[in-house]
Protein: Biotin carboxylase
Amino acid sequence: MKKVLIANRGEIARRVIRTLKKMNIQSVAVYSEADKNAPFVHEADEAVLIGPAPSAESYLVQDKIIEVAQALNVNGIHPGYGFLSENASFAERLKKEGITLIGPSAEAMQLMGDKLSAKQAVKKYDVPLVPGIDKAVVDFNEAKEIAVQIGFPVLIKASAGGGGKGMRLVEREEDMKEQMELAQSEARSSFGDDAVFVEKFVTKPRHIEIQIFADNHGNVIHLHERECSIQRRHQKVIEEAPSAILTPALRKEMGEAACNVAKACNYSGAGTVEFLLDADLNFYFLEMNTRLQVEHPVTEEITGLDLVEMQIKVAQNEKLSIQQSDVQLNGHAMEVRVYAEDALNNFMPDIGRLKRYQKPVADYIRIDDAFEEGMEIPIYYDPMIAKLVTWGDTREKSIERMIDAIDHYEISGLRTTLDFGKYVMKHPAFRSGDFDTNFVKHHFADPKIMHTAQEEEKRALEASIDQIWNDVIERQNAEVKSEMMN
Structure:
């Protein structure tokens, strides 16, 4: 490839551009009116305005993106994540136009994009599934009968989509009808598809995902796991690699299962297989994300691999340059997503201007960000400002470095999730590894506790300063007394 268009924006566009520069490949950015002053626009070799701020009029308009690609003789398109990254019709159109999508086939996207078809496909490879059914349910009485058979609590889940939309927890039989209607209504409005299915609710679930890579020559490997259990509204806020609780044997077993998922859909490129892990360390297939993940940096930090470079090489029909035995697991990496959100107000977006934006700097800190000081955070897109990543040779070291990095990350003008990230890093449940996807529910039910933690830290700091000051005064008095005696 000589020229690649990035069909995305923000930090992921900057991330892709960095690797393209390293590979001596020309980069093309497309941008909306809201992003005209964004760093990724100026860092690309070429940049083209494709429409107004709303994504439905810019980043999601396939015709405009393809038109730019053709006009500038682009060889490949990297979709990043979100927007068109898992859009099978876009993948099919690019194939017809002779433009290489840096991602999997449309067929793989379609198969894994529907949770029911994905379950049916991986079942043939003996991948563990959560007890339930792998077909759509429309009739309430049928759904209730299934729920009674597998036992409450159960989850009603939308077949299409993700992000917690169209998903309802039902703890009692008498709540079944209402929750099913709500799940179907939300699925219909979010995805245009009200197909749902019923499965057993896993107690104390942990969200463990496996990064896989496959080429077009039958080779499939995994790059270990990421722990993504710290979530709000079913969406990740903090990720780490590796998990604090996986044994080498379990890591190998889950990795092999993830590779089988890739084989089940004839996958190519970077993909992530998500599993639920219960309190007894039993794991169950959840879904496959057919794209690069937001949290891919923690995998890069522990393996030393450039996942975007690997994506591009696979898209160029190259074989994977490494085998499973070559994949390293070096140290531990943490990632805090720095969102423009108010954690004390149910993580509501807090859009505004970055009056001050100063990043911490150290050789063990990585920051993938989208903005610069003085810029406005647009209301039209995801409110993520940056991804703050730290590495350490142990989990404890990585956590301590994250706390220090948060302390030196200066952002003013709006509220962010940095304080929440620090709260998690210092929490005994997180430090011990004894947590699950209900961390926020169990340990952050009353957000005022974060204020309490901050006040305690402030008092401790003030006490430390007072002690230092007292020591200085005592030393000065001693020196004066010594001089008078002499």
